[in-house]
Specification:
Structural class: alpha/beta
Helix content: 40-55%
Largest sheet: 7 strands, mixed
CATH superfamily of the largest domain: Vaccinia Virus protein VP39
Shape: globular
Strand order of the largest sheet: 6-2-1-7-8-10-9
Distance between the termini: 35 Å
Oligomer: single chain
Number of domains: 3
Strand content: 5-15%
Radius of gyration: 26 Å
CATH topology of the largest domain: Rossmann fold
CATH architecture of the largest domain: 3-Layer(aba) Sandwich
Length: about 500
C-alpha cells in the first residue's frame, strides 16, 4: 500500500495551494520533475531560492513568469538549476565502471576492430558538470592503443546550461576526485592555477560534445534536436539517477525514447534504484554492480490500442460508475497470440459480453508471460466482475492487483469505484487518496474526491479536489475525452465542476 497523501503545512502568505498546484503541474510538464503534495514545502523552498537568485522580490512574481506560455526562458533556467542535483564525481561507482569496461567496452572495441568499423557512440544523459562523460573518455583511451584511428563520439547532455558550461571548461576541485588515486588524477589532468584546481588534458576532451537537452521535450519532439538525434545509434546510454526524479509517465516515455536509439545489442544503463521504473515501463532488466541495464536485444514492448468506449450515460453531478475497459499505461512484451487473446477479451468487454471476456482473461491470467500481462488481465477481470455486480469478487481481484504491483494506480481507482457502488464513501475516499498519490493528474480521481467530500459535508476538501480537477482540465482542449470518463469530455466535466462548486455551501 502506498503512503497516503496528508495535508502539508504550506506558507500561503506567499503562494496559495492552487498556485502551488499549477506550479508543480508546470514543472512536471516542462522538466519532468515530480513534486507530490507532501513535497510542496520543499517546492516552496526551491521557489524562494530561485526567486532570490533571479533578483525578484516575490515568489508570486517568479511564478507568474514561469506560468506564461511559453515560460520566461531566464526564469525556467533559474528554476531548473535550483531543482537539478549536480552531485557527481569521477569514477563514481568504481565497481560499475570495472564491470562496464570488462563486459561492454573491451568486447565492443574488439568486435568493431574485427569488423573494420572503428567507430563508437555513447550518450551520457544528465551529465551535470561532465565527470561521467570524461570518465568514459579516459576509459576508452585506456583500451584503445590507436585512438587516432577511431571515430568516437560521447554525447553529454544536461538540462542546466550552467553545469554544461562548467563541463566544457573541464576544471575541477578536489571533491570531484574523491574516488580516484593521486596518480590517476595526475595522468589525465593538469594543475589549473590556485585553490587546488585541476583541468582535464585536451587529449581526453576531443571525443566529448556537450549539448543542452531537455529529456522531456526530446522524448516528445526529437526533431527539435536534429543535430543530436540524426547521428548513429548509441552503443550505450548512461542515464543514471535521472529518471528517479521524473513522474512515472514521463520516466516511461523517456525510457522508450532512449531505448529506440540504441544500436543492435546496445545497452541503456540506469541506477539500481531505478529498476522498478524500468520494470513498470515494461522492460526486462539485468542487475549490474550499482546499476541495472536494459538491452536492445530484448523484445520491444508493444503498445496495446485503446478499446472503444461502451455506450452509457455520461457522468453527472451525482456519483456514477464509469466502467469502460481502460488500457493500462504499461507496455507489454508478450507473444502475438496472447496479445490477440487480450484484445479479443477487451473487445468482448466493450460489447458488454462480460462473462465471455472474463473466461478469456482468466485463462491468460493463469499462464501469463510476465507481471505486466498478469496485471492487465487482473484489471480486466476486476472490471468484468464489477459489471456483473459480483462485488466481493471484484474487490478480491482489485486487491490482487496491489499484490502484483502495489504501484499500479488502476487498482486503487477500481477499489474506489467498487466502494462507491456499495455506498462506502469514506473507504472510497481512502482509495482515491492512494490513487492520487501515485498519479496526481488522474482527473476523475479529483472529481470523485470532490463529490464524495461534498456528500460527506466536507466543503473545504471538496473545493480543493474540484479546483485541482479544474486546473488539470485547463491544460486540455475542450473536446478531449477523459480517461475512465466513458466519453466525457474536458468541457463536459468543466461545466459539471462549476455547477458543483456553486452548489457547495459557503
Amino acid at each position: 500500500m502506498p503512503c497516503r497523501t496528508t495535508d502539508t503545512s504550506i506558507n500561503e502568505a506567499e503562494l496559495s495551494v492552487d498556485e502551488l498546484f499549477r506550479v508543480q503541474c508546470r514543472i512536471e510538464t516542462l522538466l519532468g520533475l515530480h513534486f507530490p503534495r507532501e513535497r510542496w514545502q520543499d517546492l516552496t523552498r526551491h521557489l524562494q531560492s530561485a526567486t532570490s537568485d533571479a533578483g525578484m522580490e516575490s515568489c508570486r512574481e517568479f511564478v507568474r513568469e514561469l506560468l506564461k506560455a511559453p515560460p520566461n526562458p531566464r526564469i525556467l533556467q533559474r528554476l531548473s538549476r535550483e531543482l537539478t542535483i549536480g552531485e557527481t564525481y569521477f569514477k563514481r561507482d568504481p565497481q560499475f565502471w570495472k564491470h562496464f569496461s570488462l563486459h561492454v567496452l573491451q568486447p565492443l572495441i574488439r568486435q568493431r576492430r574485427e569488423q573494420g568499423k572503428q567507430s563508437l557512440r555513447f550518450w551520457s544523459a544528465g551529465c551535470s558538470s561532465g565527470e561521467e562523460a570524461y570518465t568514459l573518455a579516459i576509459l576508452l583511451h585506456q583500451h584503445i592503443p590507436d585512438p587516432e584511428a577511431w571515430e568516437i563520439r560521447i554525447e553529454a547532455t544536461d538540462l542546466d546550461g550552467h553545469f554544461l558550461n562548467l563541463a566544457r571548461e573541464g576544471v575541477y576541485r578536489p571533491w570531484s576526485f574523491r574516488q580516484t588515486s593521486q596518480q590517476w588524477k595526475q595522468n589525465y589532468f593538469e594543475p589549473a592555477g590556485g585553490h587546488h584546481l585541476w583541468k582535464i588534458k585536451t587529449t581526453f576532451t576531443r571525443w566529448v560534445r556537450f549539448s543542452q537537452i531537455n529529456l522531456i521535450t526530446f522524448a516528445d519532439t526529437p526533431y527539435l534536436y536534429s543535430n543530436f538525434s540524426a547521428g548513429p545509434a548509441f552503443d550505450a546510454i548512461l542515464c543514471r539517477n535521472v529518471l528517479m526524479y521524473f513522474s512515472p509517465q514521463q520516466a516511461a516515455k523517456t525510457l522508450r525514447s532512449m531505448r529506440q536509439r540504441l544500436s543492435p545489442r546496445g545497452i541503456l544503463v540506469l541506477s539500481a534504484v531505478e529498476s522498478l521504473i524500468a520494470q513498470r515501463s515494461g522492460f526486462t532488466t539485468e542487475n549490474w554492480p550499482g546499476s541495472v541495464v536494459v538491452r536492445d536485444q530484448l523484445p520491444e514492448p508493444t503498445e496495446l490500442p485503446s478499446i472503444p468506449i461502451q455506450a452509457s450515460e455520461k457522468t453527472t453531478s451525482s456519483i456514477t460508475k464509469p466502467c469502460e475497459p481502460s488500457v493500462s499505461t504499461h507496455k507489454v512484451s508478450e507473444a502475438p497470440s496472447a496479445l490477440h487473446q487480450i484484445e479479443t477479451a477487451k473487445a468482448l468487454y466493450s460489447r458488454q459480453s462480460y462473462q465471455e471476456s472474463l473466461d478469456i482473461a482468466m485463462n491468460i491470467y493463469r499462464n501469463p508471460s510476465g507481471l505486466i500481462q498478469q496485471t492487465e488481465c487482473a484489471i480486466l477481470i476486476t472490471r468484468c466482475y464489477a459489471n456483473l455486480k459480483q462485488w466481493d469478487e471484484a474487490e478480491r481481484w482489485a486487491r490482487s492487483i496491489t499484490r502484483i504491483n502495489r504501484l499500479e494506480p488502476m487498482a486503487y481507482w477500481l477499489l474506489a469505484i467498487i466502494d462507491l457502488d456499495r455506498e462506502q464513501l469514506p473507504e472510497a475516499l481512502k482509495w482515491l487518496d492512494d490513487l492520487l498519490y501515485l498519479q496526481p493528474d488522474f482527473i476523475l480521481g479529483h472529481y470523485f474526491g470532490g463529490l464524495i467530500n461534498a456528500r460527506l459535508q466536507r466543503s473545504s476538501a471538496a473545493r480543493r479536489h474540484l479546483r485541482n480537477c479544474r486546473n488539470y482540465l485547463d491544460q486540455l482542449s475542450p473536446d478531449t475525452q477523459l480517461p475512465e470518463g466513458d466519453g466525457l469530455t474536458a468541457d463536459d466535466l468543466l461545466h459539471l465542476i462549476n455547477q458543483t462548486l456553486k452548489d457547495l455551501p459557503t
